[in-house]
Design the sequence.
């Protein structure tokens, strides 16, 4: 299949630099070393048109890095762009069409007012759904109510995800929010969509992350610690929420997970990075991916199963919730966290000797999902 | 509130499609389905540009499909 042999990072948060400089910050450490090998560039980004008035971002990025003749494509699959871009990078090297793909995920969102950002992000919904004025976090608010009603989950168990993820984020030097929060602080923060609170929703972020993806049989010529993509699946569901049969399960996540698990032969990963745009989503996704029985993910959070020292750590990076959510960069950053953990390079948030890990990158409210299982052995 | 009904199989939808997801029919009629019955609703206080600053957002049953709508908040 494919292997990841290098990763580059920018700090997430409100950045004063423009989008090209933010992209270069994570790409340059890879480009300086491997410029002559890189024969394809994928740029994962959703909103350079809307937020930065830039079209053809991929070509501008390659030129800015003085790789003017290297072909490139910009990949937009809303908040699931990073997963879709990883899927594309793996496909490019697997097919033999590329031998070294630089994958850069980048977004610059913080220049715009919150109401504008909220409108642009909700533009992925159907026309009539959009006319009702939902935001993506508002859908998570409704899901929180439905999940608590259906499974008897406590309000505290949902908020505990934010406590855990902020604790993890405080250990990640690239995270946007590096602040440990108590359960009380989470539950007393500003209401965004009742019952969801400010600290339970990912912030508006700028940032980038880059990876170098190569064919697995060439991996060891780049590094003595490659991370192999052992399985990758992509699935989709209706963009129209009003067509969904249930909200407390995410079929696209479930199906993508089934493909990745089957391909990799790994049923239960040692740890996972999930798409916690809102706290409740981490719990629902952990069930859709089969980590816990349906309706029991919240108990795993309460019991500490998903903590760094737990049986199945989730979002050791701080997740979107604390690390930040520069939309096009998120799926790439999730993959990069798996890369660091598998190389034992995650510093204070290191999981003990993992041999495999999973990332799940989700678009919209589950209209598309990519799941990848990675491991230290081919 | 209106819904769209497939002329081929009667499948009901809130959002317009070019093709019926059930029978692949391509012809639809619009009809009045009354008021939706709320399944879940909540007060949204950070709203998209172009909307007032807070309102109750709801998902409800409308005919044999679902609808997303704003509920009037009593003053
Ligand atoms: Zn039909």
Sequence:
């Amino acid at each position: 299949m494919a292997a990841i042999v290098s990763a580059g990072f920018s700090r997430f948060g409100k950045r004063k630099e423009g989008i090209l400089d933010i992209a270069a910050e994570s790409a340059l450490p890879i480009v300086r070393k491997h410029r002559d090998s890189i024969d394809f560039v994928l740029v994962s980004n959703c909103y350079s048109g809307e937020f930065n008035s830039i079209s053809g971002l991929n070509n501008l990025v390659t030129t800015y890095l003085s790789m003017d003749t290297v072909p490139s494509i910009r990949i937009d699959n809303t908040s699931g762009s990073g997963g879709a871009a990883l899927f594309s990078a793996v496909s490019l090297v697997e097919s033999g069409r590329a031998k070294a793909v630089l994958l850069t995920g980048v977004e610059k969102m913080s220049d715009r007012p919150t109401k504008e950002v909220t409108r642009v992000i909700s533009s992925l919904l159907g026309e009539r759904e959009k006319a009702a004025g939902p935001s993506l976090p508002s859908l998570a608010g409704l899901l929180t109510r439905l999940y608590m009603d259906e499974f008897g989950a406590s309000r505290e168990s949902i908020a505990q995800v934010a406590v855990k993820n902020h604790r993890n984020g405080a250990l990640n030097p690239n995270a946007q929010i590096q602040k440990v929060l108590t359960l009380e602080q989470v539950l007393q923060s500003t209401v965004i969509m009742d019952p969801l609170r400010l600290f339970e929703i990912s912030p508006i972020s700028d940032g980038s992350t880059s990876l170098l993806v190569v064919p697995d049989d060439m991996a060891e010529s780049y590094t003595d610690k490659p991370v192999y993509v052992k399985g990758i699946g992509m699935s989709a569901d209706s963009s129209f929420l009003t067509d969904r049969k249930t909200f407390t399960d995410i079929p696209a996540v479930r199906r993508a997970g089934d493909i990745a698990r089957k391909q990799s032969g790994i049923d239960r990963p040692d740890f996972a990075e999930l798409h916690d745009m809102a706290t409740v989503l981490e719990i629902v996704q952990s069930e859709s991916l089969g980590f816990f029985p349906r309706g029991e993910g919240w108990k795993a959070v309460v019991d500490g199963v998903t903590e760094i020292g737990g049986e199945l750590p989730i979002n050791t990076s701080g997740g979107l919730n604390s690390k930040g959510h520069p939309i096009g960069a998120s799926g790439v950053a999730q993959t990069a966290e798996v890369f660091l953990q598998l190389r034992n390079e995650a510093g204070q948030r290191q999981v003990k000797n993992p041999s495999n890990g999973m990332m799940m990158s989700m678009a919209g409210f589950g209209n598309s999902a990519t799941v990848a299982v990675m491991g230290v052995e081919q | 509130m209106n819904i769209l009904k497939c002329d081929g199989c009667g499948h009901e939808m809130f959002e317009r499609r070019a093709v019926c997801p059930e029978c692949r029919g391509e012809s639809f009629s619009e009809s009045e389905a009354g008021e939706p019955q709320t399944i879940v609703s909540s007060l949204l206080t950070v709203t998209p540009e172009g909307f007032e600053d807070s309102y109750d957002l709801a998902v409800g049953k409308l005919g044999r499909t679902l609808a997303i709508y704003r509920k009037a908040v009593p003053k």
In short: Chain B has one domain: 2-71. Strands of chain B lie at 2-6, 12-13, 28-32, 37-44, 55-62, 65-71.
